[in-house]
Design a protein that fits this description.
Blueprint (H helix, E strand, L loop, with lengths): L4 H11 L18 E12 L2 E9 L9 E7 L6 E7 L10 E9 L2 E11 L5 E10 L5 E3 L20 E9 L2 E10 L2 E9 L5 E11 L3 E9 L2 E8 L15 E8 L6 E8 L7 E7 L5 E6 L8 H4 L4 E2 L6 E6 L2 E6 L7 E11 L5 E4 L4 E8 L5 E9 L2 E8 L4 E5 L18 E5 L7 E8 L2 E6 L4 E6 L8 E6 L4 E10 L2
Parallel strand pairs: 1-19
Antiparallel strand pairs: 1-2, 2-3, 3-4, 5-6, 6-7, 7-8, 9-10, 10-11, 11-12, 13-14, 14-15, 15-16, 17-18, 18-20, 20-21, 22-33, 23-32, 24-29, 24-33, 25-26, 25-32, 26-27, 27-28, 29-30, 30-31
Amino acid sequence: MKRTIEAANAYVKMECPFIDHKYFPAYHAAPPVGWVNDPCGFIEAFGQYHLYGQYHPYSSQWGPMHWGHWASDDLVKWDWQGVALAPDTSADEGGCFTGTAQMDGEEMLVAYAGLEADGEGGHYQQQCMAVSRDGAHFIKAERNPVIGRAMLPEGGSSVDFRDPCLFRWGDEWRLLATNRNGQGGSLVQYASCDGLHWEMKGIFLDGFDQMLECPDLVVRDGRALLLLSVMDMPMDGRKYPHTNPSIVLWGTVDEKAAHFYEEGRAALDNGWDYYAPQMTESRDGRLLMAGWMQSWLHQMPTDKLGHGWNGCMALVRELTWENGRLMQRPVREIERYRGEKTEKKGCLTPKSAWEFSARECAEMLFRFQNVGKQTVRLSLLKDAEQEFCIEYDGGEQVLRVDATRSGFSTAGEKATGSQMTAEADVPLRDGQLELRIFVDRCSVEIFIQDGEKVMSTRVFPKKSGRGVTLSTDGKGCEAEAILYELNV
């Protein structure tokens, strides 16, 4: 089958009437048909925000990658724009994989990983470029791949050479690509004056035993933030939620951007469904981040149920650096969609559990004061034996999430570590705990302590109940609950 943009869009149009939308999200970017994973080219351009994703239109399972395309005016409602790239040249016949986008005057320049056949049934991974004047239609560079396997450092693997991060440094274009060598994973840096002719500058980051994926770099006020997704990373207590975490490294780069000097690192998400995040800047200067709300090696219920689509992006987050740590908050535009409001404030005691009913799409805010060493429990999606449990242990100051009774399982046979449960160290702030929770048809995202940590999970309830119960096993505490219907 010849894979073209026209063929992919025609297939999507033909299959759309047969898609089951029971779990299709209302305010998270998702494919109308087929599979999506890593976000690509998250950018503001041509008067809108654009988000591309690694996309396989012909199945709800992973396959030869295209780029799917959404656009948004407010970072909340994402409208499908069709297929932007297809694997239709010899340089990318195995797939157009993860990449990034930058504006170059009036044009959008994108870098992506192309898979070229090796003549023996396998593929080489190399870096390709394309350009657009509207964000929807792209012209691929005739020179593709612009960074081929011959430009790898000595000992570098041509089958693990991908995920280009394109950025501007002074008068030059720079590009970081992930690579595996005999020592482990690294980021190789290249430089170009025109985006077409490149030269290797050296190793930007090394020291990882594992293969790295999906790098993204931002330097603001002298501080560098480097996002990475790590394959087969050993779990370290509660520091990383599973063996394929997305992490942030902070530090500096020198004036020539020759090397990254790490000062610290942390997990970007303490749930089990967040991968391959990318950053961009909003029109008003905010630093934003989009990520794939999924994790590798887990089950995909919408595929197994035959719904015809699979995967979605997480709620866009605003990033700020405060008191030596990265804070992540839900994009503020989501507040425009608040509808009917329910609230209660008072003393929560062991004898007086609070009960509410939430809508299918909801925002919830819970605040607790004088928690002490008691355990506070929150149950969502309640319906008979069904529930999604959030528990805060005030003695250990640990937040635990348990989705094992929330509906269809997402635990994969080959996955290790946390699959439907997660824990995070969450110190009280002056004896207080704050949880801000967003529920969509197939997800729960928990922003903890005003963005100190986040826990993202996919959830596929078998029953329609949306009950919410709040309780404690201790002496009681002051509590406040605010629930909003989200009209997206």
